[in-house]
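Backbone-to-sequence.
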């Protein structure tokens, strides 16, 4: 089976369903493997924080804010473990803390605190008055919530703390942690989320970087001049900045969009983005300016769900759709070959 970039676009148009299937056949999903990225907390580090918290609370029998706050300044991972027991994001914890204690804890402070601990779990927290006050307030709010059973909220709602460990207050935590259930592992998986959803969200840009790095490698190997744009960067002539411009933004002749998604809804948004780039190129040509070729490099199972979306993508790029599997053909079958300086 040939790929759409290997044949004239008239042939792609004539047998569009065949070429949709050919692109689908080489799409690969990377959702089972993720980069760790900066700030990834390995289980042994998390478990040490858990065991420290368990020890200073006497097996969670005494969830006391003063002793836990002091423990947090000895082992900052206690903060991460405590947040995971609540099941809150850092901003949510900050909001609840401000409500319950009257101490103003900004969402930015909570995010920075959480990130700093994950980046360097063994580094001591700042001993400033402000940090001590806010960390103390965070711990105090957590202790209030963990020391009380979940309130009634009505049959059509569910409380965020109505979980196996926290629904009945300390007794549930004590029971779960002492029954031979690997409570630390349960918390660790909750910390990562869904599982790993929280972590996946934090490294989403790195997931996309793998495709962009592969494109850079192809362009560099061929000796092709290119401009790789930055996120949210503004480029004159583009109300929507592409990921790569060849040879430069001052003389755009080829643009490349690199997109990976595991979600079909997000894939539809990406297709619309690429369609818009094709419209910009067409508008330039209509107004007497040089147009540019639009190339799509895609990955992830999200692009392999809706055939209609792939049809739109093939039409917008005139068949120039590549995946990681076909990226070695990127230069040969596009206008990029005109800029090649290395054999």
């Amino acid at each position: 089976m040939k790929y759409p970039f290997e044949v004239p676009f008239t042939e792609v148009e004539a047998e569009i369903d065949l070429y949709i299937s050919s692109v689908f056949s080489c799409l690969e999903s990377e959702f089972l493997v993720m980069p760790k990225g900066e700030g990834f907390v390995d289980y042994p580090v998390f478990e040490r924080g858990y065991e420290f918290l368990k020890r200073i609370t006497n097996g969670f029998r005494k969830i006391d804010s003063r002793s836990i706050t002091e423990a947090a300044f000895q082992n900052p991972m206690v903060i991460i473990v405590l947040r995971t027991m609540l099941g809150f994001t850092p901003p949510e914890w900050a909001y609840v803390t401000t409500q319950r204690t009257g101490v103003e804890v900004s969402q930015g402070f909570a995010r920075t605190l959480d990130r700093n601990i994950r980046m360097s779990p063994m580094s001591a927290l700042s001993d400033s008055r402000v940090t001590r006050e806010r960390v103390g307030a965070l711990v105090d709010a957590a202790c209030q919530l963990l020391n009380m059973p979940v309130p009634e909220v009505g049959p059509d709602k569910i409380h965020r703390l109505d979980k196996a460990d926290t629904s009945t207050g300390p007794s549930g935590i004590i029971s779960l942690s002492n029954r031979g259930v690997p409570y630390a592992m349960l918390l660790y998986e909750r910390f990562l989320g869904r599982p790993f959803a929280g972590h996946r969200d934090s490294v989403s840009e790195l997931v996309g970087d793998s495709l962009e790095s592969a494109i850079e490698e192809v362009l560099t190997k061929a000796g092709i001049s290119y401009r790789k744009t930055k996120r949210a960067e503004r480029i004159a002539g583009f109300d929507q900045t592409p990921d790569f411009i060849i040879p430069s933004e001052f003389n755009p002749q080829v643009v490349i969009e690199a997109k990976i998604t595991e979600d079909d809804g997000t894939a539809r948004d990406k297709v619309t983005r690429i369609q818009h780039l094709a419209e910009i190129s067409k508008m330039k040509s209509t107004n007497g300016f040089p147009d540019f070729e639009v190339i799509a490099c895609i990955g992830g199972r999200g692009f392999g769900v809706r055939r209609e979306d792939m049809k739109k993508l093939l039409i917008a790029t005139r068949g120039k759709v590549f995946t990681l599997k076909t990226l070695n053909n990127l230069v040969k079958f596009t206008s990029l070959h005109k800029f090649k300086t290395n054999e």
